[in-house]
Structures are given as C-alpha cells and as structure tokens.
Design brief:
This protein is of the alpha/beta class and 197 residues long. Helices cover 50% and strands 14% of the residues.
C-alpha cells in the first residue's frame, strides 16, 4: 500500500477540480494511521471549499445497500465521502460490486478506506476498483511537500488538460496573457515561477 502517492487533502481536491463538474470521478484515499477524524474533517472542508459543492460523509459499513443507493442519489451531484474503516469481507464487497451500476452518479465519490478494506475491495470488488483506476492516494499531512515525482505528475496532468506546454505557460505569464485562474497559479508555482503570479 505504501506505493500510493501521499497527498494533502487540498491536492486531492485540486485533482478532482481539474476533472470538471460532471466527471463522475471515483477516488480512493487511504486513511492515515493517526489523527483520522481531523484528516477526514480537513478533506471534507477542502473539497467543499475548492469545488464549491456540499460534501457529505456516508458509511459503507452501516445500513442496507438500498439505503446507500438512495443516499447517493439524493442529490446525485454533490460530493460524497464514503467511509470504509474496516474490511467488509468477501460477501459484502461482492454484493456491492454486483450493484455497482446503482452507485454511479454525476458527483464524485471519495472512498475513505483503510488499507485492509482497500485490499478486500481490490480482491472482491474488481468493478468498483476499476471505477477508481489509478486514483488512489494516501492521506498526507496538510501543507505536505510534494516530491519531484508528484510535482512532475501534476504538471503532466495540467499539460494534458489544457494542452499548453510549461514554456508556453511561462511565456504567457511573462506577457500578461495568462488569466489569473487557480490552475495557472498552481502551474507557475510548480514550475518555480511564483514570481510571475
């Protein structure tokens, strides 16, 4: 599990923001080993603040599947953090996996999941795992310093989304052609050119 990028919650929120409002994104976030409630509260606050949408917290281990399905769709366009603190076991993961199409929604779903629960999900709920794809992160401290690998991955994400190269962003900023949008500010900071913001 340690191979997953460690990101502060604000970085996770930034990644969801760049995907757009109706991206139907699923993201997995591994629960940190300590200070779990504060980390969850911070993630919820950062998601609500950056994406400008309500963020609800639901538990996957409590209640029936029908209650969960109903809760995910009332409304279906807000942000939901689905808390899975313990492994649900083969039977429950398989039943969730079979009902995956009922869980699809326009708003993002963040699985706040323990390492054991993520291992169970990967083994017994392969379709839910495919919803998440490579978007699995370990919750990191706020204000955490990005590694070079994380910084380069984020730059590649921005390049892919906007279709500009790093040099072009710097040139546009130098000639005052770059709008003061949050992603462009972030981009310049990642390039070490915060002086152009």
């Amino acid at each position: 599990m340690s191979d997953f990028p460690i990101l502060p919650s604000v970085e996770i929120a930034c990644r969801l923001e760049i995907r757009g409002e109706d991206s139907s994104s699923w993201v997995g976030v591994l629960i940190p080993p300590t200070d779990v409630q504060n980390a969850l509260d911070g993630l919820r606050a950062d998601l609500s603040s950056l994406l400008q949408r309500e963020t609800r917290v639901l538990s996957l281990e409590n209640g029936t599947f029908e209650e969960l399905r109903a809760a995910l769709h009332r409304p279906s366009n807000d942000i939901v953090i689905l808390v899975v603190p313990i492994d649900l076991g083969a039977e429950k993961w398989s039943s969730v996996d079979l009902m995956r199409s009922a869980l699809e929604r326009t708003g993002p779903v963040i699985l706040w999941v323990s390492a054991n629960a993520f291992a169970g999900l990967s083994q017994f709920a392969p379709n839910i795992r495919s919803f998440i794809g490579p978007s699995i992160f370990a919750a990191g401290p706020e204000g955490g310093i990005m590694t070079d690998q994380q910084r380069n991955a984020r730059l590649e994400e921005l390049i892919g989304h906007y279709g500009y190269g790093n040099e072009e962003i710097v040139r546009k900023a130098e000639s005052k052609e770059l709008p003061p949008e949050p992603h462009f500010v972030e981009w310049l900071v990642l390039l070490g050119r915060g002086d152009l913001v």
